[in-house]
Design goal:
With about 475 residues, this protein is of the alpha/beta class. The protein contains 23 helices and ten strands. Helix 16 packs parallel to helix 19. The longest helix is centred in the first third of the chain and has 23 residues. The relative contact order is 0.13.
């Protein structure tokens, strides 16, 4: 995985900074509550939502079990339709492939459809190192790029910015990237959208190369699917001569009939719409219509390792709807940057440590970035049991020695609970020394009590009270 976000502090430290930013918390609270309330109403319209959710889970699980077969079928279909398929084992290989393809066209700039996969591998930085400029065309991604910022949400990357901040970014930075913002620009949504439209229009019209991801890939026909709400994706997918799509291998679905399930689940879970305003589908190349050269880069970058984990592999069902972020109390207060990854929130807490491993302090801390309340599982349209995977990954971190004191404490507690006499003695000792107990634990244990109070010990153990009152 790309090291774009590595070097950041572990989640507890980054989250502590974020929760101190009152404006950030207000922006996040307003946005997440608005989105999740709209989603709840959109989902309630479907009497068979539970059945659709079960179907999405079943299709994804079936596909992952037979991923090798469906990827080969996809390659054959894309090739037969006039496209070229490339296989990338990791981020470095994917970046080399895409950079080579762009340089072969002789162009020095590309327009991009919003893509988590290209952010994951750090493609923009790799292209820049070769003198190629990548222009983000999604409105929120444009805000992030102009502000020299990082995405903080899967669906709305600039969710941490309010209108006044966006106006300031446009006024200060647009000119350095192309057409400047209009004079007298206000923070009216209509004016901000128009400024972005005018700024991007010239890039759409002159671009000869586009880079995209894909929400889904249909194995039986080799069809790529991109859903979006602004129309920028449609412009990128049709106007340039060369189209390069970088897609994670888990995005494949077997048939068009399977695709139908996800085109109902995704819009309602993400944007709370019955259908995305723009659903673009393309199969290879077609003479005189759309790009004349199509390349599909199938990205592994740790996914086959995730697939090998029977518990963790369910993270690969994710369709990037971001519903889990919008209901997560931890994300709402800490924001996306604290996760140190392009995948923030509950899904990032289980996906990133599996793709990148848990060797770094940051990645080892992510499985603990949760209250385990289960809200994320309840809203997931493909029924990923995120709390189950979080606990599974915490076990992995503990086994590698990341929490030796915790392991020692659990071992001691296990011994005491297995021996009634020892438990009774420990309870009496705790009761007799209760006035000496600190409110916070010392040393490494202090992190646990930074946000929790130690429970008060009663005057006497329950078993002693029982013997005295129930002889």
């Amino acid at each position: 995985m790309s090291d774009t976000f590595l070097g950041m502090p572990a989640f507890p430290e980054a989250a502590a900074r974020a929760t101190g930013d009152e404006r950030l918390r207000a922006n996040l609270r307003h946005a997440t509550h608005t989105i999740r309330d709209k989603r709840a109403r959109a989902v309630a319209e479907l009497p068979d939502w539970a059945e659709l959710r079960a179907a999405g889970k079943a299709v994804k699980d079936h596909t992952l079990r037979h991923l090798d077969r469906y990827l080969v079928q996809l390659e054959e279909a894309v090739t037969a339709a006039g496209g070229t398929v490339h296989w990338a084992a990791d981020a470095a290989e994917a970046n080399r492939i895409v950079t080579g393809l762009v340089r072969a066209t002789g162009e020095s700039e590309v327009v991009k459809v919003k893509s988590m996969a290209t952010q994951e591998i750090g493609l923009n930085e790799a292209l820049a190192a070769e003198g190629i400029t990548a222009y983000e065309t999604d409105l929120a991604e444009l805000i992030v790029q102009l502000g020299d910022d990082r995405p903080s949400h899967i669906l709305v990357p600039a969710i941490h910015r309010n209108r006044a901040e966006i106006r300031e970014i446009f006024a200060d930075r647009m000119a350095a990237w192309g057409r400047p913002a209009p004079e007298g620009l206000t923070d009216s949504p209509a004016e901000l959208a128009e400024a972005a439209r005018l700024h991007l229009r010239e890039k759409f019209l002159r671009a000869r190369v586009a880079v995209s991801g894909a929400n889904f890939m249909v194995a039986e026909t080799g069809t790529m699917v991109v859903v979006e709400s602004e129309g920028n994706g449609r412009m990128c997918l049709t106007l340039p001569r060369t189209l390069i799509s970088v897609v994670g291998i888990e995005k494949v679905v077997p048939t068009w009939r399977d695709l139908e399930v996800f085109l109902q689940l995704l819009p309602r879970s993400s944007t709370a719409e019955r259908m995305n305003p723009y659903t673009s589908l393309w199969t290879g190349t077609t003479g005189g219509d759309g790009p004349s050269d199509f390349h599909l880069v199938l990205l592994d970058n740790g996914r086959t390792a995730v697939l090998a984990d029977q518990v963790g592999r369910q993270a690969l069902r994710c369709i990037r709807c971001s519903a889990c972020l919008n209901v997560c109390p931890v994300y709402e207060r800490a924001g996306g940057h604290a996760y140190g990854s392009v995948y923030p929130g509950p899904i990032g807490a289980i996906l990133t440590p599996q793709l990148r491993g848990t060797a770094s302090e940051l990645d080892a801390s992510l499985p603990y970035a949760s209250t385990l309340c289960g809200a994320c599982y309840e809203v997931c349209p493909v029924a990923i049991d995120i709390p189950e995977v979080l606990v599974h990954l915490r076990e992995r971190v503990a086994e590698q020695g990341g929490h030796r004191l915790e392991r020692a404490a659990m071992a001691a507690a296990g011994y005491v609970l297995d021996h009634p006499a020892a438990l009774a003695a420990a309870e009496r000792l705790a009761a007799r020394t209760r006035r000496l107990h600190p409110r916070r634990l010392p040393g490494p244990g202090r992190a646990w009590t930074d946000t929790r109070d130690l429970p008060e010990v009663p005057d006497e153990p329950f078993r002693d009270w029982w013997r005295r009152n129930r002889p």
